[in-house]
Design a protein that fits this description.
Elements (H helix, E strand, L loop, with lengths): L2 H8 L2 H12 L8 E2 L4 E5 L5 E5 L2 H5 L17 H11 L8 E9 L2 E12 L2 E8 L4 H5 L3 H12 L5 H16 L3 E7 L5 E8 L10 E2 L6 H7 L4 E4 L7 E4 L22 H10 L3 E9 L2 E10 L7 H43 L6 H7 L1 H6 L5 E6 L2 E6 L4 H14 L5 E3 L2 H4 L10 E8 L7 E7 L3 E6 L5 E5 L2 E5 L6 E6 L8 H35 L4 E6 L4 E4 L1 H7 L3 H4 L4 H4 L2 H4 L15 E10 L2 E14 L2 E12 L1 H46 L5 H32 L5 E4 H15 L6 E4 L5 E4 L1 H17 L8 E8 L3 E8 L31 H11 L3 E7 L3 E9 L4
Parallel strand pairs: 29-31
Antiparallel strand pairs: 1-11, 2-3, 2-6, 3-11, 4-5, 5-6, 7-8, 7-13, 8-9, 10-12, 12-13, 14-15, 14-18, 16-17, 17-18, 19-22, 20-21, 23-24, 23-27, 25-26, 26-27, 28-30, 31-32, 32-34, 33-34
């Protein structure tokens, strides 16, 4: 194991993360210095000199500090200053503007390539001395070379040929000894896809470079400033003076600077490769960094500004033509894959269910995204086709997506890398494209793509070299670029934009089909229910036309469905039925469901009860209102109802007579038994006296029961004649009666003042209140003083009264039973009573279309409620 590997193994995760963070935090866009093959002036809006590079002294042959806060016209002619100002006002299509400037120093004229651009609130002016090198003389006609390059591009038909042509042309134009075309993958690892070099230089063709060789902030600069030159890696940086601007303590941003100094780490990287001069040209595609044209030289190499601009123009032209070639290839791919999507849409006919299409046409679903396998999860069902991992893994993947992913699409070329799931050992798939088929992220369609078993050749082992310094651990450039092979199995071909687009489209198709199937099933279920009902059902639209009818209706009226659909209701029926809907007026609907017609009619000597209900029906793209007309044959029901009414009346009369007639013999039994005890009491033993007491008590209880039954039966025969009563007076009378009855006992009955006036018979109100109060006193708690509280609530359409006690309470399981006739929760020995009182109260309140209920906390007390409508019909 090498020293670097041993050191890396000894590092903790925290130390390694710290080294990576230190690298990513390096602010390479504000180095505070420049490369010395030119010099820099920082100007304010008035072109006053606010900052300069210290190497300006070698051009001025004196200390340049005297220039601070002087205007640029101290060095440059006025007409050239106007030209510079014109350059800075041309907009932001290109942040860098250039011209030629001449400076006179000690009576000598020096010529410079001048570049100016805006950085924040300041202008950055860079001046490079013009040099008549052999190479620049040879490149005087580079504009013709650019024209030749652009013309020859039109003859190229493949990306490979384009790659090879551009590296050879850039080498010819710039004179660098090696040109590499470097393309990034989705993880920002780079690969050399074309190369032109001198024979003595080592080749990197086909090799891969790890993403850490060009860190994130460096890639961000490449995406902003398309060309960067390092003429000599051994240069000594020239600092900018002073360190700050207007006490802002913010260094000037040199992202667009041509002279910007380079990170020492990158210079060491180039030295390790044996490179003394470097130039990079950014290749952009769809506003994203696609790759670089990397230019290397084995010795220092200055390239003039004109040649650099020609090289950058070659890069832009190459990028544009590459887009054309890619779009051509992508267009063919799009057409092919869209054809599958269109075919899929054609297969999903109204009669084809989702499950049948999945089973019969899954190959099209797979080919539409160029996948190898497919899994569909819909409504808890699992469908798998083609090459996929085992079911256990796909279930785990769906669960992982539900818990960790909430976006529109999950696309990965490596499940192992992008999730915490481990693939089965024999699994061949690696890529995943998952799209939810429901808005709640439960149903998914998931495509799988086979992992490409390949051997990757790296330019050196792609590992992180860490060095410990006084300030902590830092990344250092790799020292070796020897070929290093790595086996890669768990990476698939990337998912293209058309793959993802088609995946989303298919998911929407499946979602739509899913809901269509559910809607069709609901319609089938509804039709089945309608057709099996004995009721006569017609559905009519707002124009009065018949939309549907069930089998019962068709059979009774002897119509075929096709003969009446679309016909106006009044044209199909005659007489009373036809008059339900006027042919000359629309059916008016409100926004709420409501019963609009309810009546009886006779048809074919049978009685029918008809209800017409308004409700919304959904029809394709718009909501329409329809009228559902339901008619039920109630002939037998009417006969039975009449018989029941007569029978109930007879039973009530018998109950009234029986209750009344039974009271007389009970009085005789009670009276003679008491007389027997009075006249012959001295002759009777204790046992006989006890029997007499039992008989008298039973007679009294029987008499009370008959009295309550008599009152209960009278309610059905009495006609309610509500009158406005003062409930406060009625309650006051009841309270006084209770106090008299329970004189000497410690009780408390309280009532809200100003109780309301209501429409009710006084006797009925008193009966209900008396039962509630007496129950509260009867079922008192043995350990506390009985307390009764009477209150009320004024609601919009009704009065609600409440009688609260602090007695023994009632268990919830008895809440419903307690209002039933003869229901008792205790024996008569413990608590006397007939079990009719609360049933009588319920019958009274029902007669006024009110409600009666209770609430209770066992052991603490009960709340008895009843409601009375404010208006009695």
């Amino acid at each position: 194991m090498g020293q670097a590997a041993e050191q890396r193994q000894a590092l903790t995760d925290k130390e390694l993360d710290g080294a990576l963070q230190t690298c990513s935090d390096e602010q390479i866009h504000i180095p505070g210095s420049i490369q010395p093959h030119g010099f820099m002036l920082i100007l304010d809006d008035a072109f006053n000199i606010k900052k300069f590079s210290l190497n300006l002294a070698q051009f001025l042959e004196q200390n340049p500090r005297y220039l601070l806060n002087l205007n640029l016209d101290t060095l440059v002619d006025a007409d050239k200053i106007e030209e510079l100002k014109q350059l800075t006002s041309q907009g932001a299509l290109n942040p860098i503007r250039s011209t030629l400037l001449s400076l006179k120093v000690n009576s000598e004229t020096h010529h410079f390539d001048a570049i100016i651009h805006k950085s924040g609130a300041f202008f950055v002016l860079e001046l490079e001395p013009q040099r008549e090198t052999t190479l620049s003389i040879l490149r005087q006609d580079f504009y013709r070379d650019i024209m030749t390059f652009s013309t020859n591009l039109q003859k190229i038909e493949s990306q490979e040929a384009l790659f090879d042509y551009v590296v050879h042309e850039v080498r010819r134009i710039t004179g660098f000894s090696r040109i590499k075309l470097y393309r990034f993958d989705e993880l920002w690892n780079g690969q050399v896809v074309a190369e032109s070099k001198e024979e003595h230089m080592s080749s990197y063709m086909g090799l891969h470079f790890p993403h850490s060789d060009i860190p994130k902030q460096a890639r961000a600069l490449y995406a902003r400033n398309y060309l960067r030159l390092i003429p000599d890696i051994s240069y000594q940086p020239s600092a900018l003076f002073p360190d700050d601007l207007d006490d802002s303590q913010k260094p000037i941003d040199l992202s667009f600077s041509a002279l910007r100094s380079v990170s020492p780490v990158h210079l060491q990287y180039l030295e390790n490769m044996g490179i003394m001069a470097s130039m990079s040209i950014s290749i952009m595609q769809n506003s994203k960094l696609w790759g670089l044209i990397a230019c290397h030289h084995h010795e220092p190499n200055f390239v003039s500004y004109n040649v650099r601009m020609a090289a950058e123009l070659v890069g832009h032209t190459f990028s544009s033509f590459l887009s054309t070639l890619q779009q051509s290839d992508e267009t063919i791919e799009v057409i092919e894959k869209k054809a599958y999507v269109n075919e899929i849409m054609g297969v999903f006919t109204p009669n084809a269910t989702l499950m049948h299409v999945l089973k019969d046409k899954y190959e099209m679903l797979i080919k539409a995204v160029n996948a190898d396998g497919l899994v569909v999860y819909v409504d808890g069902k699992h469908f798998a086709f083609g090459l996929i991992p085992d079911t256990a893994f796909t279930d785990s993947l769906i669960k992982w997506l539900e818990e960790n992913f909430n976006q529109e699409v999950f696309a990965s070329t490596s499940i192992m890398r992008d999730t915490d799931l481990g693939l089965p050992q024999k699994a061949l798939t690696s890529g995943v494209l998952a799209v939810p088929v429901s808005t709640n992220m439960v149903d998914y369609v998931v495509w799988f793509r086979e992992g490409q078993a390949r051997q990757i050749e790296w330019a050196g082992k792609p590992e992180k070299n860490i060095t410990k310094t006084e300030s902590g651990y830092h990344l250092t450039p790799r020292a070796s670029f020897e070929r290093w092979k790595q086996e890669s199995r768990y990476v698939s071909k990337p998912w293209s934009e058309i793959d993802i687009e088609n995946g989303k489209t298919i998911a929407k198709i499946l979602l739509t089909k899913k809901y269509e199937d559910k809607l069709r099933q609901k319609n089938d279920d509804l039709n089945s229910i309608l057709n099996n009902l004995n009721a006569i059902i017609y559905i009519i639209d707002t124009e009065g036309r018949i939309l549907n009818a069930n089998n019962t209706a068709l059979k009774l009226f002897d119509y075929a469905k096709e003969d009446i659909l679309g016909q106006h209701f009044s044209e199909v029926f005659e007489g009373e039925l036809a008059g339900l809907i006027d042919k000359n007026s629309k059916v008016v609907f409100s926004t709420q469901d409501s019963i609009t017609v309810e009546k009886d009619f006779v048809f074919k000597n049978k009685n029918f009860h008809l209800i017409s209900i308004k409700f919304p029906l959904y029809d394709q793209n718009e909501d329409i209102y329809a009228l559902c007309t339901i008619a039920t044959d109630i002939s037998r029901l009417r006969d039975t109802e009449a018989e029941l009414i007569e029978s109930n009346k007879e039973l009530e009369r018998m109950a009234f007579i029986a209750s009344h007639d039974l009271q007389e013999p009970l009085r005789i039994i009670s009276n003679f038994t008491q007389r027997l005890e009075r006249d012959y009491g001295e002759q009777l033993d204790e046992k006989a006296k006890k029997y007499i007491d039992f008989t008298v008590d039973a007679a009294k209880r029987m008499n009370n029961l008959i009295s309550d039954l008599l009152a209960y039966s009278r309610l059905s025969q009495e006609k309610h004649e509500p009158q406005l009563i003062n409930t406060q007076k009625e309650i006051d009378v009841l309270v006084k009666q209770c106090e008299v009855t329970m004189e000497g006992q410690d009780i408390e009955i309280s009532c809200e003042t100003r109780m309301p006036e209501i429409y009710m018979e006084p006797g009925h109100f008193s009966c209900v209140m008396q039962n509630f109060i007496s129950n509260g006193l009867k079922y008192r708690h043995p350990e506390r003083k009985p307390q009764i509280v009477i209150s009320y609530e004024d609601r919009t359409r009704e009065w609600v009264f409440c009688v609260k006690d602090n007695g023994i309470g009632i268990k919830k399981k008895y809440f419903e039973k307690i209002f039933e006739l003869f229901q008792r929760l205790h024996t008569s020995q413990d608590y006397p009573g007939t079990g009719i009182g609360l049933a009588l109260c319920e019958r009274i309140i029902d007669g006024y279309k009110g409600k009666i209920w209770l609430d209770s906390e066992y052991g603490e007390g009960s709340w008895f409620y009843f409601s009375i409508p404010k208006v009695q019909s």
